[in-house]
Design brief:
294 residues, globular, alpha/beta
Amino acid sequence: MRTALEARNLVKHYPGVVAVDNVSFAVAEGICFGLLGPNGAGKTTTVEIIEGVTHATSGEVWYFGELAGETFRQEAGIQFQNTALQDYLTVKETLQMFRTLYDRKADLNTIIEQCSLQDLLERDNRKLSGGQRQRLFLAVALVNRPKLIFLDEPTTGLDPQARRNFWDLVQNILAGGSTVVLTTHYMDEAHVLCDEIAIMDAGKIMTQGSPDTLLRSRYEGLIIEMPIADVTGDISNIEHRVLENLGIVEIVSTDVSASLTALSTKVSDLNHIKIRQPNLEDLFLDLTGHSLRA
């Protein structure tokens, strides 16, 4: 499998701040690569450097074995987190306008069908719902038949059904052979879509790998979860963490029966206890100490 994209020792300095601190990673062709991190971690700056929106203080971006240049600009599609659409244009006119900006041109009918825009072509941009706008933004990112697509928090603000519909669109794009670089604050989204993830904090990559591999290497047991208000005894001898903003205590246990027995005299209501598999949000919290819910 070829390497589609490679970031080499990226550094970005702002006055008094190192936003990106010697970041390197490679993205294989045809996969979805997720870049995750709390607000201020440097992930957006990293992606903007790669896209060419922001200049790096130092470091290089390589695209299919060459320094990213004109070929990269023609073959990359970008769905920004915030995009301004021209007022008084229809969906169809918007797609036609953006398509003229590239030498590489996709078939508009294919994109329209792919992004489920058939019933919206004559609608004014101002009258689109959140989910409809995101489908249009994705279609705009596809007008140049991109080999590499950047999606910057594409489902922020969407309702659950619209988010899952968008996931289907991304999976169809991946099935067509394109490579996707995704930033997201939703851990379930990253787990569903990403073949590989990198978690950033304070400008550095904390860990990188496939979601399942990272979870298996970090956790051996299950997580016991209970409300803080239900803890009535001393649990200091049991390894745990407290999510104060959520009012929850979590314990990683390799022997759930033994843990529940130990908790039985220290918790007022065992009916409120939940037992679940570790997930990416657990990994995120352990590595960064930040909650994505904030």
